[in-house]
Amino acid sequence: MALSFARKAAMAAVAVAALGGVSFGASASEAASSPAAHPASAPASAVAKRSASAHRQVPQVPQVVTQVIGRGRVDGHRWSVALEFHRTLPKGYTLPTLPDGSTAPGTSLLCQRMYIGGVRIDHQGGRWADCQPVTGTQDPRASGEMGLWGLHDKGLSGSRLMVSNPEADVAYGVVSLSDGTQVKATTVAVPGTTYRAWAAPIPDGRTITAVDQYDTHHNRLTHDTNWH
């Protein structure tokens, strides 16, 4: 369950990360030294090596890339957050219908997988809960959102996770708590994409006083006091 921006909540409700070739061939001098030599041709072993080398030159692009954003312990429970990028829309997933009746655009899928104590947040919503359709690897619609997620009371109580999908210039986030402590989380990107996030655990009973985001030069870019 989650308390997040309206667009992400609506999407979740509806839908519920070469080697160079080596050529081999028959030696021309070997062919010339024997009058009975047949026209030069590559030995079978050399052909096999050349074929294997050519095969290695074409990297296999994974259809699903999973990148861990953060992990640790909170209130004695293990927690983790990962982004899961599907290059094509997976089998069984249907693009959601928007409030105006049109179908949401997208050729790929980006999922946010969050666990506390071994339980996936929003698992009640099915396999594609907390997933959003995107177009390719650089869709700007996946940036600029932040949410407070938990297993109870829509993320308002119990152990929770603050997760931000920031703009490209955000290097890290700092969550300030009511007891004076601060939790810093570094932005991590899915390899080969512009999709990124940072995640920070919020212990039970703590109140968030501010959430700040900074660039690589430690300049504060955003300051938010609307989370609790």
Give a structural overview.
It is a single chain. This protein is mainly β. The chain is built from three helices and 14 strands. The strands form three sheets. The chain has a five-stranded antiparallel β-sheet. Strands 2, 3, 4, 5 and 6 form a five-stranded antiparallel β-sheet that branches. A hairpin with a 2-residue loop joins β4 and β5. The protein starts with a strand and ends with a strand.
Outline of the structure:
With 228 residues, this protein is mainly beta. It has three helices and 14 strands. Helix content is 12%, strand content 39%.
Keywords, separated by commas or semicolons:
5-stranded antiparallel β-sheet; 228 residues; mainly beta
- The number of helical segments is 3
| CA gyration radius, whole angstroms | 25 Å
Q: Which strand order spans the largest sheet, edge to edge or round the barrel?
A: 1-7-8-12-11
What is the average of the pLDDT values?
A: 82
Specify the structural class.
Answer: mainly beta
Q: What does the largest sheet look like?
A: 5 strands, antiparallel
- What is the helical fraction, as a range of percent? 10-25%
| Helix/strand order, N-terminal first | EHHHEEEEEEEEEEEEE
Strand content: 35-45%
Q: What is the global morphology?
A: globular
Distance between the termini: 15 Å
What is the strand tally?
14
